[in-house]
UniProtKB/TrEMBL annotation:
One of its GO terms (biological process) is phosphatidylinositol dephosphorylation. GO terms for molecular function: phosphatidylinositol-4,5-bisphosphate 5-phosphatase activity. Residues 64-369 form the Inositol polyphosphate-related phosphatase domain. It comes from the Eukaryota. This is Inositol polyphosphate-related phosphatase domain-containing protein. It comes from Paramecium octaurelia.
């Protein structure tokens, strides 16, 4: 694990570059970065980078931005029997809010139809985080799970936790696909956290976008009705979006492929967003500087190229947006001129966490209340 990223960072108001045409064009023409990323993808030896390591945090107060860690991980039906220390770095890294969205969590999708409980996973998370972190709210649907922990110093400022589910599987009843969500108030700001598992398959991008838009409409409506007819302020969306690389890739060609930006430019989610073909065009995402997180061997960082081969993909993603509500102040300036209070500080994937055919992806944010 690196303590300092080799990738260029942008100063405020965009502390971390966003995955859009401007930044894609800039970084895809950087020879040194291209060489580094091509080698990481070829050998799958990516080492992630966390911000704020070894920086103790004073007790939370209204003058501080909230530091938030958000994680998404398709766990392939298992609970790791090893420590998650390298995922949270709890001894050397402080976050005020920790959100973990998982898919295929604890049990397989089929088994989860009959037993949906994620209590064992929640216990493991609580043990990993320790007594300083308290569970605020969680939600489960089939093999999906999302949970929000807050540092004990932030707990007095949190209230009105709610959970929501929306099935999009067989007949709209089975929850093998769909989404779950949690909403909370922090200092009168409404946070909405969504976790989804969308349709799989190389040729299913159109269906995935339909699922996404229906989930967003449903959860926004639920939050509005459960928070006194008030819209959310911040939306963070984790999930296995099942986005694939829109290219012909075979087990033979994948072993020697090393064109990182060539693949990234054909990412289906990116193509859909830039063409404004879906609701995702309203969301932001950090620039991707890590290899595809699917499909890998469970216990070794190598592509799965045998009988169960799949076209690789950046399936595991974290999207976000800020709902800039109309106020007296906002009527005097355009939304573009308003300062964003939700800022992405880091976006990366942790290839040290094995046991699944996916690798977890994480994002670090600051939020000014």
């Amino acid at each position: 694990m690196k303590t300092h990223s080799v990738y260029p960072l942008i100063e405020d108001p965009l502390p971390f570059p966003l995955f859009n045409d401007n930044f894609f064009s800039e970084y895809s023409q950087d020879p040194k970065l291209i060489g580094s990323l091509n080698q990481e993808m070829l050998h799958l030896n990516h080492k992630c980078s966390y911000k704020w390591l070894n920086q103790p945090r004073n007790e939370w107060n209204f003058e501080n931005d909230i530091r938030m860690l958000v994680i998404t991980w398709n766990m392939h039906g298992m609970i790791p029997n090893h420590s998650l220390k390298r995922l949270f770095n709890i001894d050397i890294l402080h976050h005020d809010l920790i959100v973990v969205g998982t898919q295929e969590c604890q049990r397989s999708i089929v088994t989860s139809i009959f037993c949906e409980s994620k209590s064992e996973w929640e216990v493991k998370l609580q043990n990993e985080l320790g007594k300083s972190y308290i569970k605020v709210q969680s939600a489960s649907l089939n093999a999906m799970h999302i949970i929000v922990f807050a540092h004990k110093s932030l707990i007095p400022k949190i209230r009105n936790g709610k959970s929501y589910t929306f099935s999009q599987g067989f007949m709209g009843i089975v929850g093998n696909k769909g989404g779950i969500a949690v909403s909370i108030n922090i200092n009168e700001k409404i946070f909405l956290f969504i976790n989804s598992h969308l349709e799989s398959g190389q040729n299913s991008e159109s269906k995935r976008q339909t699922q996404f838009s229906k989930l967003e409409t449903h959860f926004e409506s639920q939050v509005f009705s459960n928070h006194n007819q008030i819209q959310y302020d911040y939306l963070i969306w984790t999930g296995d979006f099942n986005s694939r690389i829109d290219d012909r890739i075979s087990p033979q060609t994948i072993r020697t492929h090393s064109d990182f930006f060539g693949w990234l430019g054909k990412d289906q989610m990116y193509l859909s967003r830039r063409n404004k073909l879906n609701y995702q065009s309203q969301f932001q995402e950090g620039m991707i500087f890590f290899p595809p997180t699917y499909k890998l061997l469970q216990y070794y960082n190598s592509w799965a190229v045998d009988q169960d081969f799949r076209v690789p993909g950046w399936c595991d993603r974290i999207l976000f947006k800020e709902n800039r509500k109309m106020t007296m102040q906002s009527t005097q300036q355009s939304f573009q001129e308003m300062t964003s209070k939700l800022k992405l500080q880091n976006y990366d994937a942790n290839f040290d966490l094995l046991g699944s055919d996916h690798r977890p992806v994480f994002a670090q944010f600051t939020i000014a209340l």
